[in-house]
Each structure stands twice: as structure tokens, then as C-alpha cells.
Design a protein that fits this description.
Distance between the termini: 21 Å
CATH superfamily: RNA-binding S4 domain
Number of strands: 7
Largest sheet: 5 strands, mixed
Order of helices and strands: EEHHEEEEE
Helix content: 10-25%
Shape: globular
CATH class: Alpha Beta
CATH topology: Structural Genomics Hypothetical 15.5 Kd Protein In mrcA-pckA Intergenic Region, Chain A
CATH architecture: Roll
Strand order of the largest sheet: 1-7-6-3-4
């Protein structure tokens, strides 16, 4: 499990994918979400605008598991 540190209250799923080095650019988020199943806290999620907050667990098939950690 990999920790992704953010310095804001939340990060969107699209932004998260870029910060976690899963995609190269923010523009790839829509395509990536349509091709790979992503679970946020155990539930399938396909909205790139989904807000991820401290403690949220993200599972991406073929890429691993991540957890959001807020460091203000």
C-alpha cells in the first residue's frame, strides 16, 4: 500500500491519478477511468471529480492500493 500525501482538504480522483504517477497528464483521466476499474473505499468509482479525503483507500487493478494522507 502506497501513501499519497496531500496538503489540502481533498483531492479529486483525476488529480490523484496524476499525483500518484498512474497517468501522465490530467487529460488522460477520463480515458483511464473508462478502461480500468477503480475502487474507492471498496466501491467502484468512475467520476474523475470524486473528492478523496484523508484516510480514503483507492484500489486500482494492475496498479496497486493507495491511501490518502493529509499533511497540512
Amino acid at each position: 500500500m502506497r501513501e499519497i500525501a496531500i496538503d489540502t482538504e481533498y483531492i479529486t480522483l483525476g488529480q490523484f491519478l496524476k499525483v500518484a504517477d498512474v497517468i501522465q497528464t490530467g487529460g488522460m483521466a477520463k480515458w483511464f477511468l473508462s478502461e480500468y476499474p477503480i475502487k474507492v473505499n471498496g466501491e467502484l468509482e468512475d467520476r474523475r471529480g470524486k473528492k478523496l479525503r484523508d484516510g480514503d483507500k483507492i484500489e486500482i487493478q494492475e496498479h496497486g492500493t493507495f491511501i490518502i494522507k493529509v499533511e497540512l
